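Field reference: sequence -> structure
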Amino acid sequence: MELRVDGKRVVITAAASGIGRVMLDVYRDAGAKLFISDIDPKGLEDLRGSYPDIGVMACDVAVTEQVDAFVDGALAAMGGIDVLVNNAGIAGPALPVEDVEPEEFDRVLAVNIGGQFRMARKVVPGMKAAGAGVIINLSSAAGKFGFPLRTPYSASKWAVVGFSKTLAAELGPFGIRVNSILPGPVDGERIRRVISDKAETRGVSFAQVEEEFLATSSMGVMIDPLDLARLALYLATDAGKAISGQSLSVDGDTRYLR
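Structure field:
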């Protein structure tokens, strides 16, 4: 079955690299019109050069004024927003809770859950007026398990699950579907930084922590970002028209985190 979103107007946050960049490519190949954000100037410039058909704007999702300007730009460029993918997130520190600075904790929550709130509150009125819409929020396996040395991150990702479930109940009567995706450890630069930070904090090797990450799932694998992008695409198509309020894990059967 070929999944298509021809002509659908899609906004993706933090799409200049990583998971967001893969999602951009998958949605673009499926026929979407796209408007994306990031905070990386070089990444945004590269996108402008590679994809002149895509709307691109710098935006820190933790800053309300920047979110409002970004969504206004998307609406002006595309005439509406059919799909919002709240992908922006940061890893935060890998430290014992007593060593986490309050400013670090606040920053993680401001981006990982506050950013999703800011985007949703700005996008929802247009979706309500249209009587349809899709919101996809990126959570994590850390949104259903405890995650030692990662209290800010785990707290934020648990919050995403509750936020998504509540939005689905609130917005369902308006034809708007909301789901969260919970990846396991995703292959890429971010997870390598997390592994390195945890190894340093614990005084053990990178290889040991990496092995422990893989051991948390029955399949023993890192997650391919393409698998997340394909699920996000499915949720935006008519094939997923009855799916809302769900926390969908793509994690190789993760059983715990450590």
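Note: The radius of gyration is 18 Å.
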